[in-house]
Amino acid sequence: MMCFSTLLFEWCIPFRYRNDDENDDAEAEKLVEVLMINSTSGPGLLFPKGGWENDETVKEAAVREAIEEAGVRGDLMDFIGNYHFKSKTLQDECCPEGLCKASMFALFVKEELQSWPEQSTRTRSWLTISEAVENCRHKWMEEALKQFSIWLEDKM
């Protein structure tokens, strides 16, 4: 039996503010950095992501995945948007096209863990938004970063 469905994932864009070290002015603009992790299946960087368990909400899953994959804790802020993409690795009988939908959230990082579940296979990289755009593994993530930037402007 063939069924056609879209696989659902939750993702987050972990971020922090860093003061510009070159300027001692207390009014100096804060630099925003986003946290990306290496992909375990090829080149390029990703944001923490995963599916959710039956006993948790999408938001709870986003927070859990940030801890498991990137080793960070913080405050889940707002929903950034839904993004559709295809995944060759997720093609199967129930999803022959590999269609996926990512719900993206902003996560304000308050703590970087020294040890976390996937640290043996994941490397963390703090990047400016423009650096993150250059290093995104997937085009749709660039769109998510653009939306994140718009959201951030409204929050500042």
Structure description:
The chain has 156 residues and is an alpha+beta fold. 24% of the residues lie in helices and 38% in strands. It is built from three helices and seven strands; from the N terminus they run ββββαβββαα. The chain has helices at 58-70, 129-135, 139-155; strands spanning 7-19, 30-38, 45-46, 49-50, 72-86, 99-112, 124-128. Strands 1, 2, 3, 4, 5, 6 and 7 form a seven-stranded mixed β-sheet that branches. α2 packs antiparallel against α3. The N and C termini lie far apart (51 Å). The model has no long low-confidence stretch (mean pLDDT 82).
Describe this protein with a few key phrases.
single chain, alpha+beta, 24% helix, 156 residues, globular, 7 strands, 7-stranded mixed sheet
Share of β-strand residues: 35-45%
What's the Cα radius of gyration?
16 Å
The whole-number mean of residue pLDDT values reads 82
Computed structural class: alpha+beta
Q: What fraction, in percent, of the residue positions are helical? A: 10-25%
| Main sheet attributes: strand count, strand direction, barrel closure | 7 strands, mixed
Shape descriptor reads globular
Low-confidence runs (pLDDT<50, min 5 residues)? Answer: none
- Give the CA-CA distance, first to last residue: 51 Å
Number of strands: 7
How many alpha or pi helices?
A: 3
Task: State the order of secondary-structure elements, H for helix, E for strand.
Answer: EEEEHEEEHH
